Amino acid sequence: MRKSINKDPNFKFIDLFAGIGGMRIAFENAGGKCVFSSDNDKFCQATYKLFFNEEMAGDITLKDTKKLIPKGFNMLLAGFPCQPFSSIGKRQGFRHATQGTLFHDIIEILKKHKPEAILLENVAGLTTHDKGDTYKIIKENLDKISNDTGYWIIDKVLNASEYGVPQHRKRIYIVGFRKDLIKAKSPELAFHALGFSFDNIKTENKKYINLHLEKNVNDRPITKHLQDVYISKKDDGRPQILEYKKQQVSNTLVASYHKIQRLTGIFVKDGPTGLRLLTENECRAIMGYPKISKLFPKVPVSRTQMYRQFGNSVAVPVVEKIAREMYKTLNKINSLNEQFNI
After folding, report:
1. Judgement on whether residues 305 and 321 belong to the same structural domain of the protein
2. What is the mean pLDDT of residues 253-267?
3. Is 82 marked active-site?
4. Which of the residues 34, 44, 82, 283 is marked catalytic?
């Protein structure tokens, strides 16, 4: 178990829909301190407590939960669930379309606490979800949260395999800075002045999952029968079979991995039947998490829940690179404010 690693942090953040703390690890590695976290899943709460020796808050839609959020944090992080709220928007206008959705709770928190910066993470298809209306609503609501608060927004779909993670995992990352921090006529001009760009985030040479595969694993084989009648019924390159001596980047680890699906399956050529499921350490490597250790012990949940937790998590090294760039930008803003006595 590890407590907050930064006693004198460069910045403070809150982590909503925190899962098992992937974003927290990334932002703590970048010099931040988590002052509040929330997730409603009891299994994630158990793993999070084991990792960080802290209790997460529960349902963020409740007023009593929101009251637990402290004042004075710099950044809000959220890997928020994607919900179709455009049908409401078409009837009532996009400004009201988030009512009753979890994104609305993010907006409420931003309206009250007004952190300097935000990071939202979601599936790559968010921009086309519900014919683009979902993302249109998101951007419009972030652009003007209240009469005196709004955020300049920039986004990009990044593939984790290009940032030191042995997995093809495309996710959209939405970064925002409060508008009053930098006066501009458009997001493009604002981010030019801020100096923030996803292009500043250093890419890395591909890393391969075969270097992280564990050998002689005997406790999670796929039966010969299942292999013959389902897994190998077509010669179409699916599922992905990982081998120790073959340089491979893993396909996307999905939350439903435990269901052993051909189209999304990632299996290892090993074990008593010749084919097995991934181990926890292999899932950790695929997502950029530390190996099982005293600081990050084996998750205290079933194998099914373990796969769900890592499949729903973030690619930690990617988020860490974004976190460092966000802090660098905030540091620049603070320096300019001090220089001009703003």
Report:
1. no
2. 93
3. yes
4. 82
